[in-house]
Amino acid sequence: MKHLRFLTAIAVAASLSQVSHADLLKGWSSQTDPVEVGRRVAQRFVEVDHPNFDANPAPTREITYPETCAWLGALRFAAATSDTALVRRLEERLIPIFGSERHLQPMPDHVDHTVFGSIPLQLYVLTGNEIYGEMGLWYADSQWAMPRGRKGEEADRLQALLDDGLSWQTRYWIDDMYMISAVQTRAYLATGNSRYIDRAARQMVRYLDKIQCDNGLFYHAPDAPFHWARGNGWMAAGMTELLNCLPENNPDRKAILEAYRKMMSTLKQYQRADGLWGQLIDEPKAWSETSGSAMFVYAMISGVRRGWLSEKEYEPVVRKAWEALVAQLDENADIAGVCEGTNRSTDRDFYLNRRTLPGNMHGQAPMLWCATAFLDK
Questions:
Q1: Where in the chain are the domains?
Q2: Is the pTM of this model over 0.85?
Q3: How far does Cα 33 stand from its chain's mean position?
Q4: Cβ-based neighbour number of residue 15 at 10 Å
Q5: What is the pLDDT of residues 317-344, one digit of tens each?
Q6: CA nearest 371: which of 312, 307, 318?
Q7: In this structure, what are the phi and psi dihedrals at residue 338, rounded to the nearest 5 degrees?
């Protein structure tokens, strides 16, 4: 790990070398200014103890992926605003996991647990503390190493995935490709080792070939044929994570960029009069959902600023959506209209009847991603 700090500087510089186009930081009111909104949401995150995930309310449970994604968003926002005090508070959230809160540490035994590795990796990039780097790489490397204790047909199935260059955690659900991309891109930025970003890109292309629909959107899973907003948001954000860091000469970049643009084009057509997207994107009777909408906005902000998308076509979409999202924040910076944790289903009404949970980390996280993307230079 002793050379990682130098390589980190190279990797970060390379990832930010693309020219930023539209200045999306201009033209906002004091209420909708992305920097102020980001500060409010980040402050709210550090004020809240490890939140109970709605599907598992037991107080001794491990840290879950929605918290991880919000934590990562807060760290990236802190870096973008050079807020060292915020970085320190976010670092202090991790330190007890090496001691009194060790029981909260997720193990890299599932795609939703392994994404936790993005936190120590991002902290390594920001602080240079090699303990964080070692911890994060353990997660990233575990995603491509045969887990212990697997035998018989299960072991054969997992080995076949690894032999094909894929993670053993492959299951072809749409949220996977944010969880995998987040930790593997952080490992790439922390080390400069292209194997991390290359294998994540290969994984993404395989998912695109397997589950992207002709219109560019995605079903929740092959056996759940519905264009669920947040599920599609995970894919939109996952492609964005990769494209933000993927070298121009990577052989999979062209396919990922084409798939991304195809998805954004269809999403633009489904934006509602209120500026958001429906819980089921293509269902007019579905209620407007904020977490998926925020993920779409994150992808579009990055696309406009990086020049992947037409500024003329997408800047109005971004502005309308961001104003609508900020309007959903209460005085505590908790966002309303967030769909609760949702497993796949073959029943359309299952999606339409989901509860909303104000301030749920599924929604807080992409608000932080958006605020950071606005600041990308």
A1: 4-375
A2: yes
A3: 22
A4: 16
A5: 999 999 999 999 999 999 999 999 998 8
A6: 318
A7: -95, 125
Residue with tokens 């969880």: 179
What pLDDT digit, counting tens, does each position of 79-102 carry?
999 999 999 999 999 999 999 999
Tokens linked to 207: 């998912």
Helix (H, G, I), strand (E, B) or coil at 96: helix
Q: For the domain bounded by 4-375, which CATH number is listed? A: 1.50.10.10
CA distance 16 to 8: 12
Q: What value, to the nearest 5°, has the Cα angle with vertex 48 and ends 47 and 50?
A: 140
Distance CA 14, CA 227 (A): 34
The pair of structure tokens assigned to 170 is 């492959």
- Residue 178 phi, psi (nearest 5): -85, -45
The radius of gyration computed from the CA coordinates of the chain, to the nearest angstrom, equals 19
Tokens, residue 164: 């094909």
Return d(Cα 283, Cα 202) in angstroms, integer.
32
Helices (H), ranges, 148-288 = 152-163, 176-191, 194-211, 229-245, 253-270
Q: Rounded to 10 degrees, what is the CA torsion of 196, 198, 199, 204?
A: 120
